[in-house]
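Suppose a colleague, Dr. K., hands you the sequence of a protein chain of 450 amino acids and asks what its three-dimensional shape might be. Before reaching for any lab equipment, you can write down a predicted structure in token form. Begin with the sequence itself:
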Amino acid sequence: MKVKYSKYVPNPLDDLDMDELLSKLSDLLLSSGFDNPWDPGGGMDRTMQALHDAILEALFSGGVLPPDVVDKLFGEQAEGSAEETRQQLEQLISQIIQRMQESGYITGAPDLDAERQRRAQGGGGDGDAQPVQFEVTDKALDFLGFRALRDLLGSLGHSSAGRHDTRDLSTGVETSGAPKPYEFGDTLNIDATATILNAVTRQAAERHATDAGAGPARLELGQEAYQPEPGTAPPVTTSGIDIDYQDLMVAQGEYQSSCATVLMLDCSHSMILYGEDRFTPAKRVAMALAQLIRTQYPGDTLQAVLFHDSAEEIPIRELGRVRVGPYYTNTREGLRLARRLLEKQRKDMRQIVMITDGKPSALTQPDGRIYKNAFGLDPFVIAETFAEVSACARAGIMINTFMLARDYDLVAFVRRVAAMCRGKAYFTTPYTLGQYVLMDYLDKKTRTVH
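The predicted structure, expressed as tokens, is then:
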């Protein structure tokens, strides 16, 4: 058999970190309409041209390719003319897009060659052709949620992940409290040392009472153990230790509760106005929280509610695809839907995590019509919203609000909501939102469980 060898030509993609590239493209893949606030359908920022430009930016300033590779390909060390370099760059970006499609991160673009040929034969022009768009897959969104969680937890340092600690003690597996006498219904996590000590103490007291002719006696828990008189030897027995029901002691561990959470996301138009995209960071935090619960708190539940002119529940897997629109802020309707979802959950803890940046400015009336007041803090809207907050408080639901604005009247409103539901009010920014949300979730939220 003949073997033909050829010169090895290295491929620049061999040095490409696809995971790092996907993280650099997260703002594009999770776009919320900030680039074009008047296009709530999300057409223009999901085009192949937008993806091309984002990859080009990541290659030169994102650090996804080693500097020496970039300099060799496109810098002073590059071989060939400027046109050849441009063609090589276009080819490299096309290969990256193809690899993203093959890896299942984005959907493939349609085959346009056949369509162009058909139009050329039919004499039709393509001046009205729509830009080629792509769609983000569930695999990409799941990866971005994992990276967001890793980055956020890394910024928090060491944390107690995997359980929610409380003040209360239970007869769990992990021992962290003093042993206690066994009661019917306790977990049989027997504290062997304390149980045997009880049995030995009781039997010694019974033998001492018998030898003294006083009849059988039992040393109750809390009394001093029998001590032989000075100069006398303690009684000797060859029989084993007889453990009675009253001797049983069980170890106590910290009571760990399960939690049902509804994440309320404000998708009103203000979330992408005023020169700042507040909704994309909120989506990224929501995806990280979902990843945390799925991997570290399997006993917990998380549901997502969008509130705008009205409110609706969405699947967790669709969080990364949600966009804002030309909506008002119907906080009362979001709280009402969240309360109904949580009332169906049989958990020790039930809480609402609300992320918003605006005042309540809309209300659903009994006949289904939407009452709106663009200025916000309408007395009618506020009164109905507080009525729903009271309903949540009566149901034992805690509301934690993460506010992305600092208007004086809004601060007073949020603090009153927190006081009514024994919740917390955080005034943060899109840059620190993730740390606040995860710290609140990982912290001892179950202090309200007594």
